[in-house]
TrEMBL record:
Superkingdom of this protein's organism: Archaea
Native organism: Natronorubrum sulfidifaciens JCM 14089
The protein's name: MaoC domain-containing protein dehydratase
InterPro entries in alphabetical order: HotDog_dom_sf
């Protein structure tokens, strides 16, 4: 892992499918009707925590061990919508064998409307 830098950004895009929502409902046990019964347009409401897998995917790619995550769910996300997550390092503090980092995340839909915002604190171990 290279040293993270302040204002460094990363993005990830994903379009959730009906299968994704059904599998998450089975895994989480959250089978509320809006997640299992299609709306009048044939879409399912994507679980908020399933949407939150976008920033966690970026964190995994960057080898960030999260110590705290706070998310605000701003708008509903439906199957078939493309969602883009922007990850920005706010602070990077070198601490011996690791970096302590804080991160700002924002997920937006194809209309550039914010659907999820949040803050992440975590650690990145230096390469041995």
């Amino acid at each position: 892992m290279e040293e993270p830098t302040v204002d460094e950004t990363h993005t990830f895009e994903r379009t959730f499918t009906t299968d994704d929502v059904e599998r998450f409902a089975a895994l989480s046990g959250d089978r509320q009707d809006q997640h299992t019964e299609p709306d009048s347009d044939g879409r399912l409401l994507v679980h908020g925590l399933l949407t939150a897998t976008l920033p966690t995917k970026i964190g995994g790619d960057l080898e960030v061990l999260a110590t705290e995550m706070t998310f605000q769910f701003r708008r509903p996300v439906y199957t078939g919508e493309q969602i883009t997550c922007l990850w920005t390092f706010d602070t990077v503090d070198e601490q011996g064998d690791r970096y302590a980092v804080t991160v700002d995340v924002e997920c937006t839909n194809s209309d550039a409307e914010s659907v999820l915002t949040g803050d992440i604190e975590g650690l990145i171990w230096k390469a041995s």
